[in-house]
Amino acid sequence: MASEGEGRLGLRSRLGGPVLALWAKHDRGSDGWLSLWQHLEDSAAVAGMLWDHWLPVGVRCLIGEALPGGEADGRRLAVWLAGVHDIGKATPAFACQVESLADVMRGVGLGMRSQGAMGPERRLAPHGLAGQVLLGEWLEEEFGWEPEDCWQFTVVVGGHHGVPPEDAQIGALENRGHLLWSSGKSRAVWRRVQRELLEACAAEFGVCERLGLWRSVRLPQPVQVLLTAVVIVSDWIASNPDLFPYYPLDVPRSGAERVAAAWAGLDLPGPWRPVDPVGCVEELFASRFALPEGARVRPVQVAAVELARSLDVPGLMVIEAPMGEGKTEAALAVAEVFAARSGAGGVFFALPTMATGNAMFPRLLRWLERLPSLEGRSHSVLLAHSKAALNEDFSELMRGGRRVEAVEADAERSYSGSGSCREAEAGLVAHTWLRGRKKAMLSSFVAGTVDQLLFTGLKSKHLALRHLAVAGKVVIIDEAHAYDTYMGVYLDRVLSWLGAYRVPVVVLSATLPAGRRRELVEAYAGAGAGVGGDADGAFSAVSEAVEYPLLTAVGAGGVPVVRRPAASGRSVPVRLEGLDDGLDLLADRLGVELADGGCALVVRNTVKRVMETARVLRERFGDDAVTVAHARFLDLDRAVNDKDLLRRFGPPGMGVERPRGRHVVVASQVAEQSLDVDFDVLVTDLCPVDLLLQRMGRLHRHQRGVGQGERPVRLREPRCVVTGADWSGRVPVPVRGSVAVYGLYPLLRAAAVLGPHLGGVPVRLPEDISVLVRGAYAEEAEVPAGWEQALASARSLQGKQRAAQREKAAVFRLGAVREPGEPLFGWVAAGAGDADDTRAGRAQVRDSRESLEVIVVQRQSDGRLRTVPWLGQDRKGRETGGLELPQDQVPAPRAARVAAACGLRLPLEFSGEVMDRAIAELEGLVVDAWQSKESAWLAGELILPLDERCQTRLAGFSLRYSNIEGLEVIRDADA
């Protein structure tokens, strides 16, 4: 065997004869090619660079802890596995694909049949699986490893194309040796070159003396996943012909010069290297956040940072505090402490919707710009959702700079990723190579929808990359109460893997049920964590805690601790009243409440009820006195509407132009999240109590004068009117639309716990939040007299529905972490294919009917298309409304981008069979000239043209749109 050289000699110097004829890459267009030994050397070199300059410290430590030589062994193993990952290309099944290169190999004794002669049987030997088998046999023959010793290492080679092999695939190939070694006289030559290449790699990459020690290692499954991801990234970079040119285009140079030039050309930003912030919490907040003058750090914020500092190791922290208490700032401060102490290289902020993700992204950027640990370095930043490119803050980071090309598949043709990157003031970049659905989450700092986190628990191709992305970050999960049972199944499994990776996690909620709190803590801590004695009591204490605010923390495999910080001191007593459902009743009540002016928020549980309510209130109070807010607006219109709501109803002292007369905002559930708006009186449909409390958080949210003296006299005492139900009977009857959205049981439980407060004792915010949520979700909840049968029936139905959700979610859910040494065989078997942030992709981790999204344009009377006319100016003062969209050519980039920003998700009326009909009709409207690669914004999109009155018909429905009302859908009488 060749002597071990730790990379000093170069792989080529260790090889000679037929092995040099093996090929790895070929470009059909230029006929350029790359030898196998060169690609293996390139990949190993890239893996070394990634380890030294890109992988977060915490990831390197986790890998190193599994090996006797620590991080040094971790580096050797990663480099070696990258160096042998394509050994399966040294087989007839692979080499026969390019006849001209196969002929060269035949000329040196490596005989093989043609690709056509091999037939479909060749597909049983994909080169990843072939490499796994060859590497395992070599380890057994040369080092005496048992098969079970090999599998935990060789599965990295077998899974480097995104799907670890299954047992049946392995067995099928092991019975077809002719695909690995050919037959006849050349069989010995094939076996000799395979062995020669593996021996040279072991020597060159410095593992000859380590393989004997590694034989007794039992690699944890998380480490196997991380190594697989490192090999995938190394392979993709090394497969980029712009960075690593093919023959004969490359200039003569050494391997070190080749990789140095490639790494410089890639210019991949390194991980965040945070420094543990010292000093008091007040100083930390003053330096990281632009606090208003006179503002003081809240007790829950102080307690969260102090708890983070007191933990032996960073783990999971659940922060429960009222709306408007500064949970976001607390989470970011804790993330900085956790990152410094865990070696995390970034932060992922997961939010429930694209709208909340867009709102968080500029806040994340402002925080990053204030971090002293970022000074003088560039770091990659990502807004992670399907419409991120339309976000102005993110697109600013993507403009300018140079182009980097990257591959996303190991094949003869390469995928070319266009774009650029630009450094912002704080050294933040949207790096070109880190684009695309499989690589984007590898960016250091990410704000995006929670779907991106839940995809980590979905069996899908290249799942290892998603795991690497989160394994190197602190994960913040906002609005944890907003996720239903189906999403919870995925979230719990993701938390179990995050605990295994020792990823610090911060969970935020204002209204988290106690049972759900315990489930989250147990999922992260791991199965059997802290079983017995005091530990059992500690987990019980998590679900029994009734204090509010509340902090709960636990380490992976540890015992939870609970902290009970003081409230901020401001208490708001809210009087609740019930009101039978009825539009005239509502209008009469608002007429009384707003007799002397004031701002009211009416929250409905369905968009249909929003529109019906707004129509009646406009007739009563006038068009200018009513504003509508729901999700059925064009993306651009909704962004404008949100800004307008903040301008009129946001916090005092922020340029707010609050209406002087009476005004009513009629909104759907969009009013529950993200917007910091403040109203004098609230009317809400009955909904689950945690969501109702979220809505109440928009009531008297800010102080307006001494004793709320700037509000109308009648409205200086906060009042919440609960409607959307018939309250006249012994058991209230919620309206059908609310039952369809939430189910009957949580509505009745909300009514039950709110009963004593309806016309009685005020609800004290925040003091009563925990009590009410606990009462609504407790297993042995108190039942009002006469409600027994109704609640029992509703609870039984809910139990069946939740069981069905859990069963449905489990189909594609990733398995639990298995014992160390268990290989990842079948890890994503029977999975969902590729996971992405499309409507179909999101449907995999959300229990919702698939919806249809269109781009809305306007068709003029002469047939020409243009962007809708009412749009305002962009950031550069240019008009965006009425831009021409020619149908005989690709529209101008600016016009196309504006049109793409006018996306609209059609309501559930267009799901199921109606969706098929709608798609067929919309496909008949496709503009052929827009279906080219030059039309990046519009190619493949469904276009919905409105006439000059902003109306159209689709699949048996009449559609009418306005930027004031949104989309109205009416079923045709003859449909």
Topology:
Elements: E1 23-26, E2 33-35, H1 36-53, H2 57-65, H3 70-84, H4 92-95, H5 99-107, H6 115-118, H7 127-143, H8 147-158, H9 167-174, H10 178-181, H11 186-204, H12 211-214, H13 221-238, H14 255-266, H15 281-288, H16 299-310, E3 316-320, H17 327-342, E4 347-351, H18 354-369, E5 379-384, H19 392-398, E6 428-429, E7 445-449, H20 451-454, H21 463-471, E8 474-477, H22 485-501, E9 505-509, H23 514-525, H24 533-544, E10 550-554, E11 561-563, E12 572-580, H25 583-593, E13 598-603, H26 607-621, E14 626-629, H27 635-649, E15 662-667, E16 681-685, H28 689-696, E17 719-726, E18 733-734, H29 736-742, H30 744-754, E19 763-765, H31 769-777, H32 788-810, H33 839-843, E20 853-859, E21 865-866, H34 893-900, E22 903-905, H35 913-923, E23 943-946, E24 951-954, E25 957-962, E26 966-971
Parallel strand pairs: 3-9, 4-7, 4-8, 5-6, 5-7, 8-9, 12-17, 13-15, 13-16, 14-15, 16-17, 20-23
Antiparallel strand pairs: 1-2, 3-10, 10-11, 12-19, 17-18, 20-21, 20-22, 24-25, 25-26
Helix pairs in contact: 1-3, 1-13, 1-14, 2-3, 3-13, 7-8, 8-13, 13-21, 16-17, 22-23, 22-32, 23-24, 25-26, 29-30, 30-31, 30-32
Count of strand segments: 26
Strand content: 5-15%
Overall 3D shape? globular
What is the topology, as strand order, of the major beta sheet?
A: 6-5-7-4-8-9-3-10-11
User: What is the arithmetic mean of pLDDT?
Assistant: 89
